[in-house]
Structure formats: C-alpha cells, structure tokens
Automatic annotation (TrEMBL):
<dbReference type="Pfam" id="PF01979">
    <property type="entry name" value="Amidohydro_1"/>
</dbReference>
<protein>
    <submittedName>
        <fullName>Amidohydrolase family protein</fullName>
    </submittedName>
</protein>
<dbReference type="InterPro" id="IPR006680">
    <property type="entry name" value="Amidohydro-rel"/>
</dbReference>
<feature type="signal peptide">
    <location>
        <begin position="1"/>
        <end position="25"/>
    </location>
</feature>
<keyword id="KW-0732">Signal</keyword>
<feature type="domain" description="Amidohydrolase-related">
    <location>
        <begin position="352"/>
        <end position="413"/>
    </location>
</feature>
<dbReference type="InterPro" id="IPR032466">
    <property type="entry name" value="Metal_Hydrolase"/>
</dbReference>
<dbReference type="InterPro" id="IPR011059">
    <property type="entry name" value="Metal-dep_hydrolase_composite"/>
</dbReference>
<dbReference type="InterPro" id="IPR051781">
    <property type="entry name" value="Metallo-dep_Hydrolase"/>
</dbReference>
Amino acid sequence: MNAAKLIGGLAAAVASVALALPAMAQTVAITGGRVLTGSSVIENGTVVIQNGRIASVGTGPAPSGARVIDATGKIVTPGFVAVDSGLGGTEVSSVGGTNDLSNQSNTLSAAFDVSYGLDPWSFVIPVARLGGLTRAIVVPNHPGSSGGHVHEHDTAGAGEGGYHDPGLFAGQAAVVHLAQGTDILVQPRVAMVAPFGEAGAGVAGGARGAEFVLFKETMAEVRLYARNRQAYERAGLRDLMLSRADLEALVPVAEGRMPLIVTVHRAADILQVLRLAEEENIRVILDGAEEGWLVADRIAAAGVPVLVNATANLPGDFETRAAHLGNAAALDAAGVTIAIKGNEGGVHRAREARYNAGNAVANGLPHDAAIAALTVDPARIFGMQGRFGALTPGAEADVVVWSGDPLEPLSQPEAVFIAGAEQPLTSRGLLLRDRYRDGGEGARPPAYVR
C-alpha cells in the first residue's frame, strides 16, 4: 500500500468516527408510538435519547431541536436481549476454527472465559439486530447445552492427571452489545456455566449421584483454597482436583457472588439442583427446565430464574417427557422470573426469540410478560437492571421502533438504536441479495458484461 492510499484510508476512518460522534450526541425524539417500556405501556408516547442514554419517557412533545422519528401507529420497545447465546463467539458451528465457545482442555474448565474470543465483525450479529436484538449473554458450549454441536466423544470422563475432561464446569459467560464497532464486550465473567442432568452425569462418570457429590467436593476445595491461598502458593496445601485458574474462577460462585447457569431439564433434576443450591448457599439460574411447569411453585419459592425455550414441546428423550408449550406461562403464573431464548444456541437463529415469545403468548403467557422476558427480565437475571433492557431514564438507549407487534413474525424493525447510536438495517445476506438482484458492482465477472 502506498503512502497516498494509506493516508486516504486513515482520513476516511477519521471521517467515519467524526460522523458517528455527532450522531451519538444528537438528541432524538421518538414520538407518537405505543411504547412498551418493559414494565408498562404508554400510548402515544415520546422517548427521548440524548448522549447515548434514555433522557425521558412519557407523553410530552419532542424537545426543541431534536431529530424527530414519527412512530405513529408503530410499537417502540427496548432492544431485546438474547440469552444462552453464541453471538460473536462462533461463525459456522461445523467449522472448528470459527467456534470459540467450546473448550475441551482437561486442565482448564471453570476459568475458560468466552470474552477473549469475541468477534465484533461476525456476520451473524447484523442478522440478529434485524430481529430487534441489541444485547446478548454469550455462554460457553458444553455437553447438553442448547448451543448443541457438542458430540459424545467430547464428553469423556476423567482426563490425565485427575482433571475432568472437558470438566464439570464449561466456563464463564459474558455480556455483549450488538452495535457496529470494534469492541462488543460489555462485561465479562457474569456467570459460570455447568451441565447437570444426563449431560452432567456423563461428564462426572455416568451417574447423577456422582455429579452432585463431585460438585459438593469441588465447592469444598474451592472454599479451602480461598481460605489458604498463601499456603497453596508455597505448596503447603494438599493437592486439589482443579488448577489454580479454575479454583480462582470458582471462588465467586462458592461465595454466592457469581450465579451458576445450570442446564437441567427433567423435574426431578430441577428439585435436586434447588436442594444443592440451598445446601451450598450458591445462586443458580436454570437453563432449559422443560419440565419446570411440574415444579414451578418450588422454583418460585427458591427465587430461581429460568432461561426457557418456549417452543420446546417434544419428548426427545427421558429428560423431557413432560415438555409442553405451556411451560413459560406456567412458570410465569407461579411467579418465576423467566427469559425467553432463541433457537439452536442463539446464533444463526437468535432473532427467533421473539417468535418463541409469540408462541408462549399463544399458549397462555401474558403479552406484557413476554415482552419483559425479552428485555427487562434478562437484564435483571444477569445483574444489568437499570443499565439496559428497559426504557427508563438513565438507561443506555437500546431502542427499537417496530412496524407492528414485535411478537408477530411479519413485524419488522424500522429503526434500531444501541446505546444511542442508530444501527444500519442490513446484513451480509441482504447485501448479497441486492448485489445480484440489482446487478451492482461485481455482480457478474467482467467477461459477462462486455
């Protein structure tokens, strides 16, 4: 590259940043729409965005000098939050080199941190934005995770040196935003992830009882390590099962400061997990819980939230014999805080979370509860309440203007803001469609257009 091209490229980059900054600083007023704040409904509402945050939500006029977006006849919501997601962590699930969500090391498990493998240029992120998604909880894959694409040969029992392969813990989740840019990380290490039920039993040696005993012994060793770090460093402590990195990563879990996302399906296993959480004084988030409706009152009494796929209704195995479409509604009716997931690991079909929420409404979940399960409740579950997920003054301005009810498949976003910055409503798939449909530059090789 010659100097002129280099200087030209730098000038273009500086210009694009300069253009982005005024857009962020510009006051935007979205007026006349039906505003679903995440916890209430405002008819003919006005949402004001300023300096990347929600300045006000109400029914007043737009501030003087603001850019006005007329949302009359439209719906305005917070940006949706993808939970149990792989967005930014994998590109093509069958191509190992693009998958930074799975870890088969037998010396590193709990300390695995997905935030280091995030790709802001992932092709799947713009597709997710087209479904109204503005944030995601990115979780590591493990045997039994909804991310799938984890094969039985990846779930062997004990590895060399006594370490479990791939380990009882899958690693640590991260929060990301889905805006254009070079850094999508919002907060790393927001939760630990572990499989229970049949998948967890397979990791522990083949039986559920083995996993629970192993888990309790691991927590005991983590607490021992936390009390005796200096002794451990000078080799004055007995040998422990896990590496120092894994022990350190699990200290916040053992102390109740970091929640543990537990993938679990059948009702019996859910009850055992609730009992384990009480005995160990740890915070858990249930992931899956297809049979949760059978024990919804127990889940609610324990104050444990659930990440649920509202369309899971087939007994694909003995863990999901009682799965049915009313699960989300039953959990909500019992007082359980739920977040509704997308499909197939929340990557290529992440945007289908809103379709799943619509199915839940068709099967008894109140509409406002479905919106909350896509917005304010996921933020609350992962300790981000007040930061995003709700249209409330002071929150980061993740706002979507919809052509109609966002739970209806034919409705589409007409404007998407993330932290106050308006996002393009396009994706690689749409660009390729337009390129070949309209005969744009490079649509056909030069020989065909001579």
